[in-house]
## 1
Amino acid sequence: MQVRYLPLVRSVVVAALCFSGLLPAPVNSAEQSRAADIYWQMINANNAKFRYGAVKVPPPTQPARTFQFGSQSQPQNPVLTSQDSATKDIVTASANDISPATSRSPLWGVITEIRGGVLSHDVLFPDRHDLRWPNPFNNDRESGVDINGEALFESPDFLDILFSPRPHTGLMINTVGDTSSAYAGLTWDGKWYTGIFLEGFFGMAVHTGKLRNGNPDRIEFGSRALFRLGGEVGWRWWDTHGVSLIWDHMSNGSILSSKNQGIDNIGIRYGYNFSH
């Protein structure tokens, strides 16, 4: 073999040994390894659901492989080596400014969630005169099933003093022609990382039922406007879909009228969350 080909052959052999891992581990790669570790820790922290804001996070880079000849070291990829500290700074600065990629805005800028469900109408419910378990399969005076639809809205800033409840409005339509209602109010909610949520609501409602002279087949509400309150417990998955059990009570509390025959409804609902 001619002497002029020896440098070329030596370069080919050294390169093959480097990529096969037979040469010593690359040097000057600690900063790149640290940046890669920080980057992947952030990805795993929130199930890989992130959005990238004004500061873009570069993907992790492989450490620059080096050829060692005696005491000298020649980086195979000097461009990546020079970016070690810059990559670390960008990744560290962006760690606190990353939020889930699935974060979305309310529908039309105001509606955060819509819900719909079915409720057993005027169920037997415990009261101060008769302590008993609620029975959704046994009606009191009125009967049938209520079809419910509801929209919940973004909490405005002025409600912060009330712990930021979401305003809501909805309809309750009875399927056999008994009392139907329309309502509006505020919903306070609490949720956990497991997806379980607990809510309470309070507001006002207007109805189509009897005020007086309705017994024994109809409820005598006493006033056209009623207070509405209740609670809901459920489970939400993917931060979007939710299913829940709801208890709904309407009466005038003997405040708006001396006649005060209220109504309790129990049912199940599905909700779709537009903003999370």
## 2
Amino acid sequence: MLVMVLTLWNDHSRKPTQTKRTMQNKNNKLLTMLAVAGIYSVAASSANAATLTLGDLILGFRVSTAATQGFGTDLLVRAGATGATGIGNAVDFRDATSSISSVVDIGGELSSLYGADWASRSDLSWGVVGVRSASASANGTTGNGNTPARSPFIGIAQTANTPGVANSNAASLSSGTDRSATSNRINSINSSFSSGTDTGISGVEAVQTLSSTSGLWTSQQSESFLVGGGGLTEASSTTGIDDTGLDLYWILDRTVGALDNGVAPTALAGQGIWQGSFQISNSGVVSFNTAAVPEPSRALLAGLGLVGLLFRRRRA
């Protein structure tokens, strides 16, 4: 009897310790599972595919000097928020009635890839392109943002940095074959962006690609781009790209169904229509600038002054 009591006592005295150890083991396993899940989640979020809607504008950056920081790697960035499906965000810039002070802030991406002195590098260039569709030509409709297929948006380097003022040779692609080829090349860049890994910082959609990859940014810009008489499709400066501007042109493949800010354009197919200019600050903030519009008060004063002058001449 005494032996049985001692045995039961010993069993009872061990149960709390065993239970505690069991719970600790379960907790350790749970913490391990959560840690693994957290690591997987971080890895998955850092390897998300970039988001792009056909018709979005893409900003491209590259350096030309070998053996320097970032050489051999191009940076592609979606210009601002993505647009509506089947339309893209290029129409937002096309139909902008006022300047956009902050399209996207990519100072972090540029510093990380090209160094803290990226803004003053003379070998760093940038450009902007976009196309809604590179398929067979089609008319503009409400459903596609009144943007006929194969009607690309292309940036042309300004001869002098003049925000909101056209200062470049207007882009033009008189041949339908050239418009198709150019649209296909932009679409190749679109495809690369969509299939790439998003490396953007703070919500910016950005993709890094090898400059040596055939058909991508460097290949298209330096070998294949066709913009007849339109000057350089990239901008660079001895003092850095923050002293440059890119005039944005919309090149119509056809005029049927096309609307530019709600109005049927007078330009012929193949002619570039100026939309505004992109600039970038030395901190990496990209802006889009449209033609300056007089303030209502100033316009009213000017009108009253003109009326007064006419009245004075009439009395005389």
## 3
Amino acid sequence: MYKLSNTSKMPGKSWSLPASRCQMGSALAKVKGSVCSKCYARKGSYCYPSVENVRQVNYAHYIENPSNFYEELKTLIETEYLKTRVAYFRWFDSGDLVSTDMLESIIKLAIDLPYIQFWLPTKEYNMVKSVTDNLLLLNKQLPVNIAIRLSVFMIDGDYFKFDPSMKDILQSRVISLETTPYEDEIVCYGNCVSCNYSCWDATQSIAYPQH
């Protein structure tokens, strides 16, 4: 059975996987100066057995039963909303997308749960492009209640140049403390209330100061 994660700095819960299972992230972790070279989800409290076990269970369950992902997560997210009335949900406070099928299921969840705002940070550029290319072919758009946010690979890196199919995809980057943010990006200092839940805002780019 899938398990949700508690996210103490954020308004609602999240669903996560082990950082060690990231595809792009595992490659970037070996690159000096990349955002994954100092991954927060590979240290500190994320390494506690009780915390890591939740992510390992989620990963194993998905690999064994990928076809059940949509229905099981829909039940979990709906139940949590009915208990708390918190309308914010984050994907991957640890880990990342496993497949394009997973991303398509997450988009379907956003469509079918329009009263919840979803945020999905990811480094899986090719998976995102594959899904948005297909949406363009079908003349469909992403639902407005999901912020799919591609993370720039390198600290202080510049934003990606997107193809037309990715026009609704957002971006984020990690900046060092001495770097001046761009005028048109929001800087997140880790307090969701003070920046009005900007990570879930499907209209703006975000910079996260390195820590």
